[in-house]
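Table S2 (continued). Query chain:
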Amino acid sequence: MKILITWASWFLWKQLVHDLLTLKKEVIVVSRNTWKTQKLFGEKVKHLKREDITQQNLHWVSTIIHLAWAPINTFPRNNKNKKLLRDSRINTTKLLVEHLPDSCDSFICWSAIWYYPSSLEKCYDINFINKYPTTFMEKLCVDREEEAHKAKTSTRRVVHLRTWLVIWPEKVGKKIRQSIQRYMWWIPWSGEQRLSLITIKKRSESCIEIINNDNIEGPVNMVTKNIQLKEYMHQIAQELHRPIRGHIPAKIIKFLWGEATQLILWSRKITPTQIGK
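Corresponding output:
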């Protein structure tokens, strides 16, 4: 099985490449900086740039996992960076769809839980269809899924991975804890908003299950649990023996982050998809 992955150099996804290599899969990695992927994966994988995406180079690829191209927390959220985010998700998706080889029977595209509207009460499952996206993030997810869906044929399935916040692994978590211990501890806004979480390990395992199970297609809510932000932060503070000093007013966060405040201030409670059951 030959698998192509885009943007696998991001630390939240590189585990997937290592797991696939452990399973003796042939992996092709497409990235903006091939020197970075070469440093991470060496000669174990084939390295391509965006301009190398052609049917010839994708020959005999059976599965494509299209993650992204630029981090969603790109700041500031001005027109220039909005254009960058759309290009990284919409245009690269178009490019891949245009050059899909006949051998490709699975097109797995990373979306996000921002496909769903923000709500403190509602719990969304994969049956919800966002017909009227109102924010930049919602429209970005909806448009990307529409582009990815064009890859679907009678012999090729399309999967949309809707996921978000990762429970940090020990190595990264240690660095975050050190920075928290050094500075004051605050909860953004009221902390009532809900986070949808998944571990890096579980995300990688779920992707591999999806690759191996041809019956999985369409949207997948790749989360394992939902938790309130204040509960999540209180748990970390308790582990660190640090007090919660207060709340950062929403006005200040909006002033600093602009439109990007929806990454932490808006709430989405998502029903996890039971993969493999």
